[in-house]
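re: ur msg from earlier - yeah i can do the 2-acetamido-2-deoxy-beta-D-glucopyranose complex, just paste it... oh wait u already did. ok heres what im feeding in:
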Amino acid sequence: MSFVILAFISVLIKCPIMALPTCLPLESKALYVPSLTSLAETLNEGLKSNFAEVSVEVVECPDLTQEPFTLASKGLGGNPKIIELGGNPYLLPLVHKEKVYDLKNIAKLVGSDPAFIIGAGAGPNPYIGVNCEGIYNLNISNGTVNQLSRISKIDKNDDKSEQITLPNTETRAALMANLLITEGKPGPVIKVHVKRRIGEDNFITTIRKAIEKKYQDKNVGMGGVFVLKEGKAKQHVMRDFSKTPIENEEQLNNWLKFYNMSAPLIAVGTLVNADMDLDLRVQHFHSFSHHGEAGHYHYDTTPETAEYLGYFTLGENIYRIDRPINTHSWGRD
Ligand SMILES: *[C@@H]1O[C@H](CO)[C@@H](O)[C@H](O)[C@H]1NC(C)=O
Ligand SMILES: *[C@@H]1O[C@H](CO)[C@@H](O)[C@H](O)[C@H]1NC(C)=O
Ligand SMILES: *[C@@H]1O[C@H](CO)[C@@H](O)[C@H](O)[C@H]1NC(C)=O
Ligand SMILES: [Zn+2]
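and the outut:
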């Protein structure tokens, strides 16, 4: 599927009908898709450096609408696409408030219907009135939306984080997002189950590094869901937009609010093994919960008791949408 066809679809469907984010620039590339067996071997070996107990297998996707995952659709099967929308340069040093995207349009733009969308991004600030995290988990089928996405924001006292589930009528994201879009169907997936962290890297970094090492000269992208079953995780929630420019990591870390959030946390997002000349964020996961905590995943703070269970699929294509022209590479942790 080439850029030409997609550009054509974009011209045909998006621009004339919707006044919203008019003609979003779109680039796409085919990804290398290793066999799941090869990937399982790679991860079984690679994750041992960081976790005491490691088990990675190829399995039929369990019903992800059930506990502990509670996602909008059952499986990760059907035309898996990795999407990166916007980027950090629309937030830093100063916000570009006009960067608001409707995920219904994004699904149309990449030609997904039904579209099961999961991932991490900035939440729809126009909906809630302040900047927020977006934890995306929804499906759209023939225009009908089933929205289970959450946003997380900081309360009025600059104290606790507050998680809110979005209604079916609110399908926007802002500034940036890293998404996996599939048809939500059954099919084979990679199951990753690890316990007791013995190294420094977080769960996703460990997976990404193993993939980087094995498939060095290829472009690989993966998305999915994991649950931190035991322990706690360091997560951040963004404060409302800064009125003064945020110029470096130190200022960024003072602006973000960090929390130790408790398991079970259900995280969704994507990772890629390379920049692919698309100015990509190499990994990005946000988690929600059923006890009110939600945010951007950094790492668990409880290595002894940490236990992760995840299901992932490989993307067949990557779509880079509305890539920032004036870019920078910091603040992507
Ligand atoms: C969409 O979400 C609803 C609610 O979770 C679910 O019942 C339905 O099967 C999903 N549809 C698709 C196409 O995945
Ligand atoms: C899709 O939606 C349209 C309009 O809402 C309806 O007319 C059509 O029958 C639907 N198609 C399917 C396959 O459900
Ligand atoms: C989180 O826990 C760690 C280690 O237990 C502690 O050092 C840190 O101060 C805590 N952070 C917050 C924001 O509570
Ligand atoms: Zn984030």
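cool cool. The longest strand covers residues 172-182. ping me if u need the other ligands too
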